[in-house]
Write a structure and sequence with these properties.
MetI-like fold; two-stranded antiparallel sheet; 12 helices; elongated
Length: 286
């Protein structure tokens, strides 16, 4: 049945469209040096419009920015920045949230009370304020973005994992594993976590989208990766003063952020739909 669901998922239009939207930027991130026509940091002809040719004969597909840097090249290299740091930040937040949620849901008691209290305290603050607080305190860098996202997102992941763990821990197969003398770590890793994978995969796709937006917002506020690193949010911030006269400097980075976020959202919706829908085999529900 798992194979049937996987095949059904690959055929889902929502998954296909979302996968294509995300896949385009993943390919750009992996093969940026071969896709980008110019060095993203090279100053060429300033304020060239899309589909124009500069004084040196160079063709600019999406134009150039205020400093003469090719926007298309910066978008391609910016995909590498987003995929790397958004993926790393989301993965780190999930590691922390999973560990906390599994421990709280399995052991319950004082462990649950302490971890839930810590999570509730962090969640009581606005998320953007937490991001800004961490970045301002420790400085703008990729590692600090990971730290900020982990600090702000792990409590939400903790709540989801805790609820799933409490529900799964009440099942007979978990009770049988406990009776057989299996260690708590093995039970959490082999019995609980695999059965909670579906909702967590959906949440991971959504959080990747949220993190993409977060990196863009921090870059727009000047709190993202330090310049001149290609960063979609930073590109929007750089083009903001000239947005009325040269809107292409702002529009294309915004499209990139929206495309990545929408693609991840569609992937999450498609995976959720496939997980909820029955799989039919030979005219019968599997």
């Amino acid at each position: 049945m798992n194979t049937a669901r996987l095949v059904a998922g690959l055929k889902s239009p929502t998954v296909v469209v979302g996968g294509l939207m995300v896949g385009i930027w993943v390919v750009c991130a992996l093969f940026a040096p071969w896709i980008a026509p110019y060095d993203p940091l090279q100053n060429k002809a300033p304020l060239q419009l899309p589909l124009s040719t500069g004084p040196d004969g160079s063709f600019y597909f999406l134009g150039t920015d205020l400093l003469g840097r090719d926007i298309f090249s910066r978008l391609v290299y910016g995909a590498r920045t987003v995929v790397l740091w958004a993926g790393l930040a989301t993965a780190t937040a999930f590691v922390v949230g999973l560990a906390m949620g599994l421990a709280a849901g399995f052991y319950r008691g004082w462990v649950d009370r302490v971890l839930s209290f810590v999570a509730n305290v962090i969640l009581s603050f606005p998320v953007l304020v937490l991001y800004i607080l961490v970045i301002v305190t420790f400085g703008a860098s990729g590692i600090n973005i990971v730290l900020a996202v982990t600090f702000a997102s792990a409590p939400g992941i903790f709540r989801i994992v805790r609820a799933l763990t409490i529900d799964i821990a009440a099942q007979d197969y978990v009770a049988a594993a406990i009776v057989q003398g299996e260690s708590p770590l093995r039970i959490m890793a082999a019995e609980i976590l695999p059965n909670a994978a579906g909702p967590l995969i959906v949440d991971a796709c959504l959080r990747l989208g949220y993190t993409t937006i977060t990196i863009g917002v921090l870059g727009f506020l000047g709190l993202g990766l330090p310049p001149p690193t290609p960063d979609w949010g930073g590109m929007v911030n750089d083009g903001r003063p000239m947005a009325i006269a040269f809107p292409h400097m702002v529009i294309f980075p915004c499209i990139a952020i929206s495309m990545m976020t929408l693609g991840l959202s569609l992937l999450a919706d498609g995976i959720r739909e496939v997980g909820l829908s029955p799989v039919r085999s030979g005219g019968k529900e599997a």
